[in-house]
Write a structure and sequence with these properties.
8-stranded mixed beta sheet, alpha+beta, 21 helices, GIY-YIG endonuclease, about 725 residues, about 40% helix, 6-stranded mixed beta sheet
Length: about 725
C-alpha cells in the first residue's frame, strides 16, 4: 500500500482548469480515470486525511503510485477524453457496466451493395443500421418474417448470395416472394436499396404514413376491380399491423425517447433502458455493475450514458433521454449528447404524465434485475460456502456460521419502536424463523426510558435479552443447557409479550405469536410446549441458537448485544455489526472495524442479511404506525376486544353518544360489566374533544356540540375514580 503523500503533486503544479486525470499503480497500469471542471480542486480531495475518505476511494489512492493529468479547453472535451481512456485502459476502480446477457439487434447492412437484414450481436459496425436491442433473437426473426412479405429484402449470407448469382437460381425465399432476389437481377441494386430504406423507416417507427398509403392503394385497386392486387395489399397491411402489435404503444405517436432507471444498494447497481421509437417500445437492455468507487445516482447515470451513446451517432441517439437523476453538472453531458446526435437532445427527469408512468415501469424492471442478480449470486452453493468461510476467517470463528441471526431496530422519531430478527441458514433466508418484536423499554421490572427517549442501543439490548432468555428457558426445561455455573433468573419476564411470528411470502405480513408467546405466559404453563419440537416435528420457536449474531449498526449496537449475552452467561455465540454507511464490520471490544474487500462474498452475505432485517423491521413499523393512525378512542381501552367494541357501537350508534352515556347505560350492553364501563368512560374522557368555542358578544356556541347529559357528573366521578385506581396499580 502506497502512501499518497509520497506522490502527491505540489498544489502549484496542478492547473485550475478542466481536464482528465489518471491514477497509475506501481506497475504503471491505469487504475482510475476521472474528469474535473477544476483539476486542482478535484485532485486536492484525494490527498486529504485518509480517515475522511470513502473506503473505496481510500483503497484507490493507497493502491496508486502516481497521478497525471491532461488539460482540455471545455468540460465536453473532458467528457469525451474520459470515455476514450476508460475504453482504452479499462481501469479497475472505474464503474464498469457489464451486460447481464448478450442482447441481439435487428441489423440492416446499409454499407453493402445489396443490404442484408440479419440478427447481430456484439460490437456495432460502421454503416450498419441497428434496431433494438431485443430480449430474444426469436422475437427479431418473427418480426422480420412478417415484414419480408411487404419489404422483400435480402436475408441470405454472402456465400448463398454468390452461389445463387452463379447458378442463376434464387433461394427458397426468392421463390415464395419473401425476397426480391437481387442475386438473379429481378430487381436492380437501386430498387433493392430503396426496399431496404423502406424497411428501416418502418422499423424505426414511421409506420402510420406507410400503412395509410397501402390502405389507399388497396381501396383504389378495389374500385378498379383489381381484386387480387387489393387482396394482396390487404394481407400486407395485416402483416404490418401484426408486426406492430408485437411492440406496445406507450407514448404518443412519433415520440422517440430512451428511458433509463437505476436500482442500487451499497455495493451494486442495476441499470435498465427502454428504447421508445415512434411511441412504441422497440427494445430493452440492462446492465449490472459493482460500485467500485463512491458514486451518486447521477454519476451512475452519466457512466451509463457514456456506455450507451459513446459509439452512437445520428438518429441512434434519440431526441429525448429520460433519467432518474441528472449528472452534476448536467450541461456538458447534454452538450455531448447533442454533438453525438447532431441536433438538440433533451436530458431530463420526467415529472408527470405518461412518461413518468413509463419511467416507473422501467424502475420496476431495474429493481427486478438487481434482485434476480442477487438471487443468482446467492443461490450458488460454492459461492455461499466461500462466503461463510470468509466470515469465519474474518471474525476468527472455529467453524463457518451455518445459522446467522440479524437484528434491526426501526422507529419513527421514537414512536412505534419495533425490532426484527431474520435467520439465514447455510447462506439462505429461513423465513419461517423470522420474528418481530414490540420494544417495551423495560429491563426486568425497571422502567429505564420513555417515549422519544428510547434509542437503538437500549432497544437492541432489550431484544437480544428477550430472545436469548427464551432460548435459555427452552434449554432449561429440556435439561439440555448446563450453563457456565452462573445463575440466570428466568422469570415470566423472559416470556413478556410482543413477540410475533414469521413473515409469509416476502415478509409483508406476519403470523401472530402462539399462546406460548403471549404476555405473562409462565414457563411451566404447558408441559407439551417444553420440548424442543412440537407434535408436528417442527422446532420450537427460539429453541436453536445461532453461531453468529449480526446487528444493524456500529460499535454501540454491538456492545449492547454483547452485554446482553454476557449478562445471560452465553459466551459461545459470536457477535458483529455491519455499519451501513461505510459497510464496516464491527466486533466487540475492538476500537477499529474490520474492512472486508469489496469483492468479498462474505461481505456480500452480511449485507444481504442486514438489508433483509432492515426491510422486515421497517415493514412491521409502518404497519403498526398505520394501525395507530386508524385507531379510535375505544382502542385505548385495555382488554376491550373487537366484538365488544362493535356491540357498543351498535347499541349507541356512535362514539359521541357512547361518550354521553352513563355507567348504568353502558352496563346494559351484553358482556359489559360496571368496571369495564367505568374504564370505557375514563378512556373516552381522556380523548374527549375540546370545549366548544363561544361568541363572547352573543354568547352563542360557534360550533354546535350536544349538551352533556344529566349523568355527566357521575361520569366524571367514575372516570376520576378509575384513573385513581389505575395510577395506584401503575
Amino acid at each position: 500500500m502506497a502512501d499518497p503523500s509520497s506522490y502527491r503533486p505540489k498544489p502549484g503544479q496542478i492547473p485550475d482548469s478542466p481536464g482528465v486525470y489518471r491514477f497509475r499503480d506501481e506497475h504503471r497500469r491505469v487504475i482510475y480515470v476521472g474528469k474535473a471542471k477544476s483539476l486542482r480542486q478535484r485532485l486536492a480531495n484525494y490527498f486529504q486525511d485518509l480517515a475522511g475518505l470513502h473506503p473505496r476511494t481510500r483503497t484507490m489512492v493507497t493502491t496508486a503510485a502516481s497521478v497525471e493529468w491532461t488539460v482540455v479547453s471545455t468540460e465536453v472535451e473532458a467528457l469525451q477524453l474520459e470515455y476514450s481512456w476508460i475504453k482504452e485502459f479499462d481501469p479497475r476502480f472505474n464503474v464498469k457496466y457489464r451486460d447481464d446477457k448478450s442482447y441481439p439487434y435487428l441489423a440492416v447492412t446499409m454499407n453493402e451493395e445489396f443490404p442484408r437484414v440479419q440478427v447481430m450481436r456484439g460490437h456495432k459496425k460502421k454503416g450498419v443500421r441497428y434496431f433494438g436491442p431485443y430480449a430474444h433473437a426469436w422475437a427479431i426473426r418473427d418480426t422480420v418474417d412478417l415484414l419480408l412479405r411487404v419489404f422483400p429484402v435480402r436475408t441470405c449470407s454472402a456465400g448463398v448470395f454468390k452461389n445463387a448469382a452463379r447458378t442463376g437460381r434464387p433461394c427458397l425465399l426468392g421463390y415464395i416472394d419473401k425476397c426480391s432476389a437481387p442475386c438473379v437481377d429481378r430487381v436492380s441494386a437501386e430498387e433493392h436499396r430503396e426496399l431496404a430504406e423502406e424497411f428501416c423507416d418502418f422499423t424505426a417507427g414511421r409506420t402510420g404514413t406507410y400503412i395509410r398509403r397501402l390502405e389507399k392503394q388497396m381501396m383504389d385497386a378495389a374500385e378498379e376491380m383489381e381484386y387480387e392486387k387489393a387482396a394482396r395489399l390487404r394481407d400486407d397491411i395485416g402483416a404490418l399491423k401484426k408486426a406492430m402489435e408485437k411492440n406496445a404503444v406507450v407514448l404518443a405517436d412519433a415520440t422517440d425517447a430512451d428511458l433509463m432507471a437505476v436500482a442500487e444498494d451499497e455495493l451494486e447497481a442495476a441499470v435498465q433502458i427502454f428504447h421508445v421509437r415512434g411511441g412504441r417500445v422497440r427494445g430493452q437492455r440492462g446492465w449490472v455493475t459493482d460500485k467500485v468507487e463512491a458514486v451518486t445516482t447521477g454519476d451512475l447515470v452519466e457512466h451509463a450514458l457514456q456506455q450507451l451513446y459513446g459509439e452512437e451517432t445520428g438518429d441512434s441517439v434519440p431526441k429525448e433521454v429520460l433519467v432518474p437523476a441528472l449528472p452534476d453538472p448536467v450541461e456538458p453531458v447534454q452538450e455531448w449528447l447533442t454533438g453525438r446526435r447532431g441536433s438538440n437532445v433533451s436530458l431530463r427527469i420526467p415529472q408527470r404524465g405518461d412518461k413518468k408512468a413509463l419511467m416507473e415501469t422501467v424502475q420496476r424492471n431495474a429493481l427486478q434485475a438487481l434482485a434476480l442478480h442477487k438471487t443468482k449470486r446467492a443461490s450458488d452453493l460454492t459461492t455461499r460456502s466461500r462466503a461463510l468461510e470468509e466470515i469465519a476467517e474474518a471474525l476468527d470463528l472455529d467453524s463457518a456460521p451455518l445459522r446467522i441471526e440479524c437484528y434491526d431496530i426501526s422507529h419513527l422519531q421514537g414512536d412505534d419502536v419495533v425490532a426484527s430478527m431474520v435467520v439465514f441458514e447455510d447462506g439462505l433466508a429461513r423465513k419461517s424463523e423470522y420474528r418481530r418484536f414490540q420494544i417495551k423499554g423495560r429491563v426486568g421490572d425497571t422502567q429505564i426510558w420513555h417515549g422519544a427517549g428510547q434509542d437503538d442501543v437500549r432497544s437492541m439490548h432489550e431484544v437480544i435479552m428477550r430472545r436469548f432468555k427464551r432460548y435459555l428457558a427452552e434449554q432449561e426445561r429440556t435439561g439440555e443447557w448446563a450453563g457456565d455455573g452462573s445463575s440466570v433468573e428466568l422469570s415470566a419476564d423472559a416470556y413478556e409479550g410482543s413477540v410475533e411470528g414469521p413473515g409469509e411470502g416476502l415478509g409483508e405480513g406476519a403470523i401472530e405469536a402462539s399462546p406460548g408467546a403471549v404476555e405473562g405466559a409462565a414457563p411451566e404453563a404447558d408441559d407439551a410446549r417444553a420440548r424442543l419440537v412440537d407434535d408436528t416435528g417442527r422446532p420450537k420457536r427460539f429453541a436453536y441458537p445461532p453461531q453468529l449474531v449480526v446487528v444493524d449498526g456500529g460499535q454501540p449496537q454491538v456492545a449492547a448485544a454483547k452485554k446482553a449475552l454476557d449478562e445471560l452467561g452465553i459466551d459461545d455465540i459470536a457477535v458483529c455489526g455491519l455499519a451501513k454507511r461505510l459497510e464496516e464490520v464491527w466486533v466487540p471490544d475492538e476500537s477499529d472495524p474490520l474492512v472486508l474487500p469489496r469483492t468479498s462474498e462474505g461481505l456480500y452475505l452480511l449485507q444481504r442479511v442486514r438489508d433483509e432485517a432492515h426491510r422486515f423491521a421497517i415493514t412491521y413499523q409502518r404497519t403498526k404506525r398505520a394501525k395507530r393512525f386508524k385507531a379510535g378512542p375505544l382502542d385505548e381501552v385495555p382488554g376491550l376486544g373487537d366484538a365488544r367494541k362493535q356491540a357498543l357501537i351498535r347499541h349507541f350508534g356512535s362514539v359521541k353518544k357512547l361518550r354521553a352515556a352513563t355507567v348504568e347505560q353502558i352496563c346494559e350492553v351484553p358482556g359489559v360489566g360496571r368496571k369495564t364501563a367505568e374504564t370505557i368512560l375514563g378512556a373516552l374522557a381522556r380523548t374527549a374533544p375540546a370545549a366548544p368555542a363561544v361568541n363572547t358578544a352573543t354568547g352563542e356556541i360557534i360550533e354546535d356540540e350536544e349538551p352533556a347529559p344529566a349523568g355527566s357528573g357521575q361520569e366524571a366521578e367514575a372516570a376520576g375514580a378509575s384513573d385513581e385506581r389505575r395510577g395506584q396499580e401503575t
